[in-house]
Amino acid sequence: MQRYEMVRKTVAMDEDLVNELDHFAKSEERDFSSALRYALRIGLLALENPELTIEEIKDIIEAQVDYRMGRVTELNPKDI
To answer: Over its length of 80 residues, how does the chain's per-residue pLDDT go in tens digits?
Structure first.
């Protein structure tokens, strides 16, 4: 399991963006910091992969978490 070091930074944001992120955090049952990290990760991945939809990116992130947690395994082509 990969571990990340957390770094604290102060970020200035427009009040409307803070309100949107706060709403997103509550709707996703996340704390504000977790929601911000998740939204930022999706946004950066969307910029790097413009051919993918946001839903596809979210599915990939979810599949990566499932794989790391051992809930799924890699498919062996010989099993097809």
So the answer is: 557 788 898 999 999 999 999 999 999 999 999 999 999 999 999 999 999 999 999 999 998 888 888 888 777 888 87
Angle at 63 between CA 74 and CA 68, to 5 degrees: 70
Residue 8 lies in a domain: no
**Would 31 be classed as within a structural domain?**
yes
**Total domain count for the chain?**
1
> Cα(6)–Cα(40) distance, rounded to whole angstroms?
15
Q: Distance (Å, rounded) from C-alpha 40 to C-alpha 61? A: 13
Tokens read off for 18: 């803070």
Is 21 within 8 Å of 36 (Cβ atoms)? yes
Domain enclosing residue 45, as ranges: 15-73
